[in-house]
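Here is an idea for our session: we take a single protein and study its fold together. Start from the sequence, derive the backbone structure tokens from it, and show both lines together. Once you have written the record down, we can walk along the chain together:
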Amino acid sequence: MLTVDQVTIRLNEAEAAIRDGQIGSNPHEFIETLWAQVLEECPPEARIGAYQRLLGLSELLGIRHTSVPEERLAGPQWDMFLAALEELPDAREDELIFWRAIDHAKAPLFDGVTEEDGAIIETAVQAELNRRGLATPGDFEP
């Protein structure tokens, strides 16, 4: 596993190579290899930052395969949301604290998204809560 400093150095080197035009003839291969190297070896506390940097580097190369909601719902923000659901307070004891915990857990999914993208993400959040029996349709609106 890489350290946070090693991840930062690797991403900085990759950015410099992209900006200097030193990535070779296949930008897709370059960025896919970089994604694999960094995310597989990235420490958990650096995953979101590394993921965001990798998205930015992909965009520098003109590569974007998915929409923002697809990226969020398949990325580390979604994984963190799902992990947070495992540690929620009991809604039967204090419903207000429960819903505040839900809001806190889902907040990273919405950082910097448009209203339209946010509605798509909110629908996925509600579907997950419904699937887990933590909410029923109509408990909150997307």
Observations:
- Residues 4-60 form one domain.
- The chain has two domains: 4-60, 68-131.
